[in-house]
Amino acid sequence: MKELERKVKAVIRDVHDFPSKGIVFKDITTLLANPYLNAEVLSQFQEKAKGLNPDVVIGIDSRGFLFGNTIALGLKVPFVPVKNRVNYLMRLLLFRMT
Which of 33, 47, 72, 73 could form a disulfide with 79 if both were Cys (CB 3.0 to 4.6 A apart)? Predict the structure, then answer.
């Protein structure tokens, strides 16, 4: 896992002051452009999610949409995309369910 973490950190680009001053945006397009590393990351996500035995995978906003559906397909469970406005409420709900 440490090796995968090192590889991912090496390709993700920091964009300073985006979308506003003081924010560091993590640009994952470089990860998405590398099919081998992207597959390795998705495999690791699926492996971790499998241990949770989920009934559904909820993907919150952009990155959740990108990764969540593929994870759900691998686990053979439904995928539900959720917009960011309910992000806090969903995290609170998921926290209380565990």
Answer: 72
* Domain ranges (residues) in the chain: 2-97
Listing DSSP states for 40-85 in one string gives HHHHHHHHHHHTT--S-EEEEHHHHHHHHHHHHHHHT--EEEE-GG
Instruction: Give the integer Cα–Cα distance in Å for 40 and 62.
Output: 20
- The string of pLDDT tens digits covering residues 63-89 is 888 899 999 999 999 998 887 765 556
CA 34, 9, 25 angle in degrees (round to 5)? 95
Taking the domain 2-97, which CATH number applies?
A: 3.40.50.2020
**Beta bridge partners of residue 82, listed in sequence order:** 60
